[in-house]
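SAMPLE LOG
Freezer: B-3
Tube label: C17
Construct: single chain, 531 aa
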Amino acid sequence: MKIVVCDPVSPKGIALLQQRPEFRVVVLDKRLSEAELLPIAADAAAFVVRSETKISRAVIEAAPQLKVVGRAGVGVDNVDVEAATQHGVVVMNTPGGNTISTAELTFSMLMALARKIPQAHASMKAGEWNRKAFQGTELYRKTLGVLGLGRIGSEVAHRARAFGMRVLAYDPYLTLARAQALQVELVEDLDALWPQVDFLTVHMPMTEETRGMVNAAAFARMKRGVKVINCARGGIVNETDLLQAIESGIVAGAALDVYETEPLAKDSPLRACPQIIMTPHLGASTEEAQENVGIEVAEAITDFLLTGAVRNAVNLPSLDAQTYAVVKPYLVLGEKLGRLVAQRAPKRNERLVITYGGKANEMPSDPITRAVLKGFLESAGGEKVNQVNVRSLADNLGLLVEEVKSNEETDFHEWVHVAAHAGTATTSAGGTLFGAQHHPRIVRLNNQPVEIVPEGVLLLLNNSDRPGMVGHIGSLLGRHRVNIASMSLHRDHAGGSALTVLCLDSIPPAPVLEELRQDPDISNLHVVKLS
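STRUCTURE (predicted):
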């Protein structure tokens, strides 16, 4: 079997592949274009890439023997995963290889901030001896705020505790039991965290929820002299607001490894700020991390090609093309249900119960469950969430996942039901497939019947069942040029409470939502984005 190593990876990883007599390893000495890769792909069983080489649909289609693409790193933006899935090609990455490397860089940044090491070094190199200018701060008994307790955040918290720091953690998806195991104090909302921290470090994925999370409003609530570290994703800390907070004296210093735009512009004002320590995205730039991802991807490819074992896949490797075609509508439905429940449920859920009924009982449940989890955990894991790593992500969060096969008779031939449990609160949604084309439909919300096309933006609300309510809501949306694509209504009894679900073409402006919330006849307003 021919394995093509397209980008530079660890020599030890290449050696692991070369020592297998079953493999013929071809190591390219430069990055090739798509056209140059096509003839090489003709008899390739595997590609090994980093971030440089693009494995496009054309390359995949030109490789009839291709079985696996291994990415020595986390992101797979340079691999057409959809095309790979359609052609039965497994795409694997190496998400754990840089955990320690990034955690150690973060803590190095933390100590450099506390003791002003880079500034003192520059002063000494300039021939100065200015001890008074570089008085530092001890970490002992200081409070570290950690935003995100995933793999890297947990390692940072562990090191901080070893230095005698108090660790406050904000992670709305982490269970209390997991926080206790990590020996950190879990903070329920950011407004309670900001005023307490002496140091703040970010370890969350970039999502709509986290973009600009550390901003002017957050800095205004922090104590003077706070220090900020970001080795996660550029843009989570608003750079303009950070500079203003440093100028005002609220923030005493910052350490950045990632930036809103990379590479960072030469004339960026961040470069001119002496209180900011900067590195050029070095989180995974250690010999060990690079060696780890090279070895990890080599071992994963070897195991898959020789034994069929799969690790760290980002698509659905266990389904052949024929089975995938049958299961695909359920995958779409499951992901939509997970996304819907996640946006309506409390953040901190202990249990997710996925129930299959009717013909859905005959489907392989694992890929559907993974699709549900992908939709449900996207807010917690961002773009790194995929159908394979969702189970480990759920384990890391302490989320118990249950699958139930039901023989209950309903009005539908096949159905999937998802229920999230947080203490005594339960949020649920059920769906089915309509017609010969198996179009997904949401048919139940918290045990109330509905009929919703799971696309675009949903506006969900409870309202008093009285004449004129539907017209009132429609007129309000219309005045703000928000178009209604479809509507579903259900009431418990005449004159009682009604559930209204509107499928919209766009997200309603904030003033519209505020006006609806202030209406005494309207409650439980939710905007859900399903696409």
